[in-house]
User: Fold these one by one.
Assistant:
Number 1:
Amino acid sequence: MSLIRVENLRYRYPRQSALALDGVSFTVEPGEFVGIVGPNKAGKSTLCQALVGLVPHFYKGAIGGKVEVAGLDVHTTSVGEVSRRAGLVFQSPFTQMSGAKFSVYEEVAFGLERAGIPRDEMIRRIEWSLRLLGLWDLRDRSPFALSGGQMQRLAIASVLVMQPEVLILDEPTSQLDPAGTSEVFAAVGDLCRQGMAVVMAEHKVDRIAARADKVLVLNRGRVLAWGPPGEVFSLDGLEEHGVAVPAVTRAARELGWREQGGTYPVTVEAAARIGGAALGRDQG
Amino acid sequence: MQFTLFVPGDSWMHRLDPMSKVLLTVIGLVCTFLLPGHLAPALLLAASLVLLASAGVLRRSTAVFAGVSLIAVTFFVVQGLVYAGNQHPALAIGPVTFYREGLLLGLRLTLRLYNILASSLILILTNRPSDLVESLMRRGLPSRFGYVIIAVLQIIPTMVEASARITDAQRSRGMETEGSLWVRLRAFIPLMGPLVTSSLIATEERALALEVRGFASNRRLTFLHEESIPGYAWPVRIAALAVLALGIAGRVMLS
């Protein structure tokens, strides 16, 4: 059974005439990692918020279509109820801190206390999530004394600790350095192997192309492409719409280096393999 | 980082549970207005000072006491000079005469002022505000109220930081922010726009983030920290109540 099922989702913010989302459909299976890419204002954040019900419950506005997450009909279920099954991490880490806790360790506990999780279970889960995000050594620091990247990882840990079935991340690596970004993507990989479905809106297309199982390309609220990264980024005309394409794929397209299925490679490793063979042939 | 006068420590008073400290403070305040004369309030003040000293916060208290000493001085001066019941001159400095009745009233008022302060400081200096709020939440304070109280205490320093950042940015673009009072006042107005706007935006984002972290959950709360009530909490509470009973008895018998 699909963990996320979105059917012909259409949404308009209040006092706006244009649709923010226009006929979006896709499904996500357990253990799948889906990347959402597209230019600014494409509707990535709106879609992320629609998956937990903030759109439309918090923003109001006009909505159509169907969103089903972990078996719940998001449009008729409260945000609180959906959030127990699907966690959402926002872009700005600073505003995700509760502001009512004095250490990293306590901050992670905030949601657990609200959910009424027993204390032993709380302590076990907090340690698990802090270690997963590499924050265990910082557990006694004040959340507001952390760097942007550390705070961003804390925001992810605070949501993960709720052990949702679905994890939605809205540009979670915007303040992270390359090493921190790698850690987040590695953690996401671990979670997918444990059966969690992960949806991530992200500008770093190279990372998405290398790690995601499927990619959803949005532009002005419409789905421009949906499928495995190799197929999606091999499509013609993406860049005319302002959609970023991995540098490797662009280079391979120029050079005419194709995979056997006719698509272009999306990772350096794949490109090197194909290119090496091509150059080898040329030389031979 | 928190907007509080709390002095961290590990004294018996720090380890005492917040509700007992609330009881001590409330009884101190009640007794302040209950006890007649000079001796009893002076004893009460002495007792509060002993408690503050045993908690290791006497120096911090002295700073507060010194801060309000000006008010105490005005009590003596004003009452000593113009109290309606003034009859017996006590002290003459040049043309100014202080009267005995007025000075005694000044003393009573001063004792009252310092008793209020000392009782309150027991709670304020030895108790982390969030611990008190958590204790109240365990006893049924709605968690939304609890959150607001704790968050406000923590948001103030971050707003101070934000305003410093905005001022720095404005100064780096050539705005005058230092100098005479007038220049400083003028610099205050362009600070408010960005500060208020950014706070409002942050508030909406935080509301969203809290919503998805289950803030509105109707479930029964659990707490990461176990409530620790030391073994001496009940003796302390009973002793405090005994003091209150003594005070009431004394008051009733004297009147």
Number 2:
Amino acid sequence: MVLAAIDPARETELRQLLESMNEAPGLVNAHNALVPFARFETLHFARFIILEDKTLNDVRAHGGGPAPTYSLYLAFVGDIDGEVEPFLHELARVAGAGLRSIFSCCVGFAANADLVGWMKSHNASTLAAYVNWRGRTVRRIHEEAALRDALVEHIDANQAAFRNLPPRQAHVKLQQFLNAERAAGRLKLSGESPAPAGWWLRNLTHMIGLPLLVLLALPLLIVIAPFYLFFLRRREKTDPELCWRVNQTHSDDLSRYEDHSITNQFSAMGSLKPGRLRLLTAMGVLRTVDYAARHFVRRGRLGRIRTIHFARWVFLDGKKRLVFFSNYDGTVESYMDDFINKTGFGLNAVFGNGIGYPRTNWLVRDGCAEEQKYKNFLRRHTLPTQVWYKAYPGLTAIDLERNHRIRQGLESSSLSEDGARAWASLL
Amino acid sequence: MKSSDVDYADVQGLVRFGYGKMKGAAYALLHVKNAAAARAWLRAAPVTNAVAMKPPPTAALQVAFTADGLRALDVSETVVTQFSPEFLTGMTEEGRTRRLGDVEANAPAKWEWGYASSIPHVMVMFFAECDGFDNFVEGAKGNAWNEAFTEVQYLRTADLDGIEPFGFADGISQPKIDWERRRDVTRPQLDYSNIVALGEILLGYPNEYQKYNDRPLLDADAASRGLLAAEDRPDKKDLGRNGTYLVMRTLEQDVRLFWQFVSEQSGGNPDEAERLAAAFVGRTRAGDPLVPPQKHAIPGIDHTDPEQVRHNQFTFAKDPAGARCPFGAHVHRANPRNTDYPGRPTGLAKLITMLGFGPKGFRDDLMSSVRFHRVLRRGREYGTELKPEDALTPAPPNESERGLHFICLNANISRQFEFLQNAWMMNTKFSGLTDESDPLLGNRAAMPGCPVTGHFTMPEENGGVPRRVSGLPQFVTVRGGAYFFLPSLRALRYFAGSEGVQE
């Protein structure tokens, strides 16, 4: 994620530039002249967003002193396959001029600046990230979608032959079809390219290292725990709830960019409750989320939630503020309901450290169970996302899982009767 | 009367009764011509309450308002703006039309009522037995009617004897309201129940989250004196209490197109056509679900009533492959009959499920728990009956429209009606499906990356490749709609006698 303060004198110009990348608000032109997203074969999702926090007065309402002032930031966020560095070079190569005109609206961007160097120096590190399916590349997604489309089309064209065909026979028949299509070069299913050794090493270090650190610190944590809980409880009982309904202008602004497609973007930011206790809690919880997302969660799921493609949390302004980005299937209403009903505990543990969140108890309880307060809170902190790109519009995370299961089934040499039934039902 | 009991005399009867015995019904959609005259008419209007009477009344009158309507009656802005955002912005707000599927042929700009200058202020609903219907309406309107209101539309209804225009028994499944508030909603619900918390249907009471929905809470003053206090805020007067939101949509049904399409797909075989039509709906024309009833009772469904058992004592749990009732069938989308957790996990298993390590089947746990998304339906059909067998002939010139004036009641429009319409009816990705929306209601509109939305998938009994019907045309077109507030009788008196709040 690239993060840069916007030159106040050029904010209007920047907004116009960003809007020029859309066909209409909320509908990006994937081939726009500034950053033709569609040309990047490893890019899943991307967004340009102006981080304009309208809730800064909440800091004062919380009793954290006068409302702070921060620079207005531009964030450029991308979810990619592989390493960041080569992607930045590709960006500079394909969209150098466009990116320069965008970033030139930011403070300290010189016309002759080294673009890649500048983006690297303006990198904001991600505190926690969630990926729906680690290792699933854009290429694989497109190939598996093409496979599914071809199979369904083939079945539609030969309905009589498939009608009442037992599942195992259908499996064999479709395997033959796939082989023929592959031989003719009409379908391609690439093998998984293994992650580089460096990645494995880092991943392993992270997997073992973090629990090891926690283990080492355990005696200390046990000693601290009662004090921690004492102070946490005291704050939980007195921290004010700031969950007013959003005004119509803000609501319209958000709505303009939403529900143009089956998948939506979500961007939200807010200030952390002042004090070390809340900061450490937020960091601890988010580190845990990040660790679980990397090493622990079942592919395709975040707890019980199966609609999130990518999500990330980033600290801003010396860890005073937190910004959250995600890409999810469905509408914001169903997204919020999903979280309340399925992962309320996690939501509370993370966002309960934000100013104004509905009252939690013991960190994970209640909070978002105040449905309407929580929805108001979330909506107040949501930001309009000016430019948002998805490499595979029309495909939900569930679609991707189905297509993958179809492929896996087709690639197994033979299926059991039950396995074949389950597989055939996916078509 | 215990303090927790609902005062039925304060609730409009439509919440408790469908007035099914009163075969005549009409909806007058009105603009307020003269606010003082309108208030006077409303003060005198014989609005029917929800007290059960013996013998039951033979006529009923109900009143509901849009946000524009409350303003037209000079209700103060500080009061109006406390209603829900959906109600305030209305059904035709642009982002909302995308979520509700009101695009292309369904676009509000093409509606017969409910768009721009045809957004009504007030809806007066008349119900009576057919014989005395016209007299009842004339009597209820009285002399002051024309001075008070101008009619935007006067929507008539037809009595099709419990059959909706496509020919299927309708209104079979309704949630049962927990009037006595006996159910504990705070525990995870592991079994499907047909009972919903009172606060899901009426404002001013705890909902399925055991919380009170936002609604206008007023300071105690002379004007609000007649209102009940808020249960959760005893210092405030609760304008919402015993009232609810009423969603209305006029849905034109192309009965000829429907039966001609299923007949064509079935090679002209009438039995096959009827089977396909039943698969679209998820019930036979007589109302029997395509999955068999279960043995054990479902709370809120009367297991002593054989017809209720046959029609409603079922869930889809025993049909995980959708081989009997397709996943995309209308009744499956409208009420998936699921629970808070799939597979009834308890204790450790629940924790495991919560962390995402529960069942890992493709279709497991895809849907939100239905108890947060129920609505009470109160619609009526309109137009003349057209039997399926007669629907195969071409339409005569100037054939009149037929369809459904869909009406539902719910306390939270966005979480109930809008969720249902968006995430379940219009969603082309419902329950792991793709390229298909509701077979009856779908608008078949393309979305980015989804050029085709007119399929319908029917899993096969033998477990082979599912049958797919393609090219479903749009059978139902939205012709009008609006969000109304159906006030309690006390709130109605507050609006009607609101000289005190005139500014």
